[in-house]
Amino acid sequence: MVSEHGKAGRPRSEQARAAILHAVDDLLVDVGYGAVTLKGIAERAGVSRQTIYRWWSTKAEILLEASAIDARQELDIAPQDGPVAEITAYLDALRTFLTNSDAGAAYRALLGEAQHDSAVRELLLSSDPIGDSAATVLSRALPDDVLALPRSRAVSSLVGPTFFWVLSGRDPAAMNTHDLALEFIRTAAPSHASD
Amino acid sequence: MVSEHGKAGRPRSEQARAAILHAVDDLLVDVGYGAVTLKGIAERAGVSRQTIYRWWSTKAEILLEASAIDARQELDIAPQDGPVAEITAYLDALRTFLTNSDAGAAYRALLGEAQHDSAVRELLLSSDPIGDSAATVLSRALPDDVLALPRSRAVSSLVGPTFFWVLSGRDPAAMNTHDLALEFIRTAAPSHASD
Amino acid sequence: MVSEHGKAGRPRSEQARAAILHAVDDLLVDVGYGAVTLKGIAERAGVSRQTIYRWWSTKAEILLEASAIDARQELDIAPQDGPVAEITAYLDALRTFLTNSDAGAAYRALLGEAQHDSAVRELLLSSDPIGDSAATVLSRALPDDVLALPRSRAVSSLVGPTFFWVLSGRDPAAMNTHDLALEFIRTAAPSHASD
Amino acid sequence: MVSEHGKAGRPRSEQARAAILHAVDDLLVDVGYGAVTLKGIAERAGVSRQTIYRWWSTKAEILLEASAIDARQELDIAPQDGPVAEITAYLDALRTFLTNSDAGAAYRALLGEAQHDSAVRELLLSSDPIGDSAATVLSRALPDDVLALPRSRAVSSLVGPTFFWVLSGRDPAAMNTHDLALEFIRTAAPSHASD
DNA sequence: CAATAACCGAGACGGTACGTCACGTCTTAGC
DNA sequence: GCTAAGACGTGACGTACCGTCTCGGTTATTG
C-alpha cells in the first residue's frame, strides 16, 4: 500500500490537526481571545504542545487557519435581484460576520493583533476575507462602466462605515443597512442612485 | 497646616504619576505595544509596581490616560476655507493620526484590545476621539440643513473608509484624501457635490 | 520594629528555604537522584519554581546546601582511646556515611555530577567533607613527628581504599575496618605499627 | 547458504553498530557527558533513534560497550622489572586513564550514574576494568606468599588513594606515583619494603 | 525466484522538565 | 499613608529530549 504524502516517516496526523483547529474555535468562544493559550488549546485538543509548535509558529496563525474558511463562506452571499438588494444583503452579512460569528470574532481578534504585530498584519492582508468578498459583490452589483471611483476605494467606501461602526463599539442594532446601501450607491455609482 | 487633598497621610505623588504616563509613551514608541509591560513601565518610570496598581487597574487605562489628550489635539484641525478643504484636511489629520502618531498607535492598540475585552470597549467608547473630532468637523463643514443623512451615520461615512484602509493594513500612501472628501460630500450632501 | 536583614523589600522567607532543603532530602531518599527534579522539589516543598531559581542556580547547589551540615556531623567522630581505635572508628563512620546516610547519598550523587561538570567539581572541592574530616582525625591520631608521608597523601591513603570499595559497588559489609586501620597505620606511621 | 546469525530476515547492520559506538565516543569528548543525548548520538551516527533502542536500553549500556575495550587496553601495562617499577607503572597508567583518557571519562561518568542507578552499578561491577587490571598487576608483582593481606583488600589499597585523589577533584599533577607505590608495598608486603 | 521477515532511515506523536518572563499580591523599611 | 524595594505563588511561554509509533524502503534467507 502506498501512502499519499510520499515522504518518509510517520505522516502528519490529520486527526490532531482537526482537533487543534476545533479547539481554537471552541476556546475563542468560551474564554475569549485574551485567554486563549497554547497550553489551553493543547489540553482541549488532547494533543501535545509540541505538536502545535511543529506546525504553527503563532497563536494568530492557528486562529487564521481555523477561521479563514468559515469567514469566506459567511461573507459569500447569494446573488440578489438588483444592486440595492445585493449591497444591502452584503452589508447584512458583514454586520453579522463582525458581530455574531465565531469566525468574525477571530477576525477582529487578529485585526487587533495586526495593529501591533506586523507579521500578523501581513498574514491578515494576505487572507483579507472582507476585501475579497466586497470586491466580488461589487463587481456583481456595479459593472465597471457605472463605477465612478477606483475599485479599491469603492471597497473601502462599501465596508468602511460598517467596519468603523462595529469596531469602535457602536451598537450594531442601530445600523440601517438599506440606507447605508443607498448612500454607498450614491457615492460609487451616481447614475444608479435613482434605482 | 491643612493639606489640599483633605485626607490624612502622604498625598499622591504627582511626580510618580507623570513619570508613569511618560514612561508608557516612551515604551510604546521604543518597544511596541506587545512588549509594553507593567514591570517595564515601573522600571522605566523609577516607580514601584505597587504604585501603578494603586491608581490604575489595567494597562489599557494607563495607555488611554497617556494618549487621550494628544489624540484630541492631533485630530482638532484648524478651520479651513470651504467644506471640501475642511474635510480633506480632516482626513489628512486622521490618516496621520492612525499611521504616524504615538497617540494613534496607542489608539489602535486599545481598539485591538477592545475587540475582546468589553471593559476596554466601554473605556474607548467613552473617550472616542475619532467620533468626537469627526462630529466637530462635520458640524462646521456641513450645516444640518444640507446633511442628507443622520449625523452619526455621516460620521461613519466620513471616517469609515480611511479607518478600514489603515486598520486592514493597506498602504496609507495610496490614499487620495481629496477624492475621498469629494466622494463623502457626494454621499452626505448631494446638494453641495458640485462645489 | 526593625527587621534584621536591613534591606528594603520583603525579606526572604526562611520557611520557604527550609521547606526546599527538606524537600530535596526527602526526594533524594524517595525517588533517587536521577528523578529529583526542580519541579518535583517545588511541588513537594509547596513552593513556586521561581523561588528556587531565585536562590539557587543548579540542582547540585541545593543538594550540597541541604546535605553539607549533616555530612560534617556524621563524619565528626568522638575522640577515641589510641590511634587504632580512632582510625577504626573513623573508617566505620565513613563507611556508614557513604552507604547508609542520606547526606552520603547526596555526596555520592554530587561526586558523580562532578565527574562531568566542573562547576560541581569546584563546589564539591570547596566543601570537601571527607577530606576535612579525615585531616582532623589524622592530626588527632598521628602527630606530625610519627607521620611518614605528607598529610594530603595520608588523607588519600586513609580514605581511598574505603572510598573505592564503596563507590565501585563492592559489598560494604565485606569490609573489615579494623584491619584496614592497622594497614593504614603500617603505611603512614611504621613506628606505631606494633601498637 | 546459511547465514551466521541463524535467523531469517535482514541481519543487523554492523555498520550502524560501529557508527553508533563511534559517535558516542566522539560526543563524549566534544560536548561532555551531560550533553550526550540519544538524539545527538543518532544524528551524529546518521542512524535512526529506533535503531539504537533496538539494541541498547540505556545510555549507560552504549557508553560501556563503547569504552570497555579501550579501558582494558589502557590499564594493561607491560611487565616491568621488579615490584616497585611494576606498581609505579600501573599507578601512572591508572592516573592517565582516569584523567586524560576518553575511556576513563566514560568510566567516571558511568561510575557517577552507578551511584544512583543500581542497574548501572551491576553493569559496571560486571565489567570492572580497574579491579581486574589491578588484580592482574598485583599477582605479577607480589606473589601470594609475600602478600600480607587479602587480594581484594590489596586491590583497594593499591588503587584507592589514586582513585580518591582524582575523583574528589584534586590535582592529578600533584601525585607522586613512585612514593605511592612504595607506600603501597610497605602496606601490602612489609617484607619487600626494603627493596 | 518470489515470499517473507527483520532490518533501516525518517519523522510525527504524547509526555515531561527545563529555565524565563510577567503577572498581581504581599511584606518590609523609609519618608 | 504613600513610597521604593523586592520576595512570594501562579501560570504561560518556547525549547529540548524522551520513548513510542507509523511510514516507505532495503536486504537476506527460505520455501
UniProtKB/TrEMBL annotation, chains A, B, C, D:
The keyword DNA-binding applies. Keywords: DNA-binding. SUPFAM superfamilies: Homeodomain-like (SSF46689). InterPro entries: Homeodomain-like_sf (IPR009057), HTH-type_TetR-like_transc_reg (IPR050109), HTH_TetR (IPR001647). Residues 37-56 bind DNA. The keyword Nucleus does not apply. Residues 14-74 form the HTH tetR-type domain. It comes from the Bacteria. Gene3D superfamilies: Homeodomain-like, Tetracycline Repressor, domain 2. This is TetR/AcrR family transcriptional regulator. It comes from Paramicrobacterium chengjingii.
